[in-house]
Structure formats: structure tokens, C-alpha cells
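Sequence in, structure out. Go.
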Amino acid sequence: MGTITRTEKRQRGVFGWIFLILFWAFQLFMVLWFVGGLSAAGDTAAGLTNEMERAGAAVGTAIGAGMIIALWAFGTIIFGAFVLLTRGKKIIVETS
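Output:
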């Protein structure tokens, strides 16, 4: 008698695929926004001459980056929950 192997598979529906694509599109958008924001802040800070202007730019950049990261985390949790809830029913495949 051989060994029986059970594998769990899930079949996504249309809404499952839509939410999965939206999840990864959101991740790509947030990466581009974060990198673009830091790049723009660096370009702006390079032209500053006063020490107080540079300090203000650093504080503003930190606040902006923190807000983007917070939005990223909240969006990931929300979209991730929808991705998990729409992943489809479990199908057990047995092979021997």
C-alpha cells in the first residue's frame, strides 16, 4: 500500500481575483508614492541654505513619510482581509 498525500487547494472566484489584483495594485502604488515622496523631499532639501529650513524640511519629510506608512498599513490590512475572505472554498486533493 502506498502513501496517500493530501494537498489543500483553493479556487478563487471573480471577486477573489479582483480583490487580489487590487491588493497588489495598491502595494505598487504605495511603493511608488513612498519612493517618489522621499525623492521629491530630497530634491527640495538640497536647495535649502538656512539651517532652520533644513530642519523644517527634515521634520516635514518625517511626518509625510509616517503618514504614507500609516495609510499603507491600514490599506494593506483592509485589502488583505478582503483577499483572505474571497480566496474560495477549500478543495482537498488526494494522490497516492
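Check: The beta strands are 5-10, 90-95. The chain has two helices and two strands.
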